[in-house]
Amino acid sequence: MKILQSNAGVLTNYEVLALFRSRGAGKDPTCVIAAVAPSEFKVYDYLEQTVASHQTIEIIHKFVEDCEKYDLAKGVMLNIVNIRPSSAVEIDPLIQDCD
Amino acid sequence: MFVMSEIEHTLRLPPHLLNRPLNVAIKGELESLFLDKVIGKLGLCVSVYDILSIDGGFIFPGDGASTYTAKFRLVMFRPYVGEVISARLEESTKDGLRLSLGFFNDIYVPVPLMPNPYHIEPDPEHKNGIKWIWEYMGENYPIDWTDEIRFSVHSVNYPPLPIEQGKDSEQKDSEEKGLRQKDIKPFAPMVITGSLDADGLGPTAWWV
């Protein structure tokens, strides 16, 4: 086994959720027919309980555009998209030197 | 939390899969090889994203199966240091907390990374359990079992595989061996150490 690129792209929780949904994870509760393995199904269950289940790709694009003027690091933007903090105190651990 | 990694691997396709379309068969083989396994430094493999190319198809002498070299991308669970993740409480002992994500249960919050100041009290509901309570501005905030807990990733470790104990222990007392095996925790190839010691971390009920 050879690792060609260990980081070929970061995925938001929403993108992974969309990947599982496109394979039919949401439609079958017993998950016997869908092309999703039981371990993948556990990840799907976890992601459904997070805010990612309510996001769409347009929201994420718009957020990235709006954040350009703040010059945030990619990791910080990823954190915010995945957690969706609704108050100042929740943002504090995500951004260093937050004022 | 999730990263894509590009991997090239040479795999042998068992002959009983020859009636399937090639990429379906290769994807199935890759899934059984990599899914739910930890790859060193890359993280836990969650899913096969796509197959970029398949080469080869050679049959080695004496073998009934063909060997392919495939390039593909895997979705890896590999949180980076500083990422904030929501998890559920799985175990609360005097050494700290253990949190779980459903698909990944080896997240430890050791005592030095618990919110300061705190005090602990024995938990009546769980055997050997300790309830952790944070003291802030005169108020007591306990860490309950039903909360969604946010933690910041402090570090991600991949401990090396342990060497098997094996044959020598057969000569020892069998009762002693039985006691020893009960205490040994199953080996965790990937361990995440989390921190709760910052504003906005800990149970979301504390902050909302």
Automatic annotation (TrEMBL), chain A:
Pfam families: RNA_pol_Rpb4. InterPro entries: HRDC-like_sf, Rpb4/RPC9, Rpb4/RPC9_sf, RPC9. One of its GO terms (biological process) is transcription initiation at RNA polymerase III promoter. One of its GO terms (molecular function) is nucleotide binding. Its main location: nucleus. Gene3D superfamilies: 1.20.1250.40. Keywords: DNA-directed RNA polymerase, Nucleus, Transcription. It is found in: Nucleus. GO terms for cellular component: RNA polymerase III complex. PANTHER family: CALCITONIN GENE-RELATED PEPTIDE-RECEPTOR COMPONENT PROTEIN (PTHR15561), DNA-DIRECTED RNA POLYMERASE III SUBUNIT RPC9 (PTHR15561:SF0). Belongs to the eukaryotic RPC9 RNA polymerase subunit family. This is DNA-directed RNA polymerase III subunit RPC9.
UniProtKB/TrEMBL annotation, chain B:
It comes from the Eukaryota. This is DNA-directed RNA polymerase subunit. It is found in: Nucleus. Residues 8-64 form the RNA polymerase Rpb7-like N-terminal domain. Residues 83-207 form the RNA polymerase III subunit Rpc25 domain. Pfam families: RNA_pol_Rbc25 (PF08292), SHS2_Rpb7-N (PF03876). GO terms for cellular component: RNA polymerase III complex. InterPro entries: NA-bd_OB-fold (IPR012340), RNA_pol_III_Rbc25 (IPR013238), RNA_pol_Rpb7-like_N_sf (IPR036898), Rpb7-like (IPR045113), Rpb7-like_N (IPR005576). DNA-dependent RNA polymerase which catalyzes the transcription of DNA into RNA using the four ribonucleoside triphosphates as substrates. One of its GO terms (biological process) is transcription initiation at RNA polymerase III promoter. Keywords: DNA-directed RNA polymerase, Nucleus, Transcription. Belongs to the eukaryotic RPB7/RPC8 RNA polymerase subunit family.
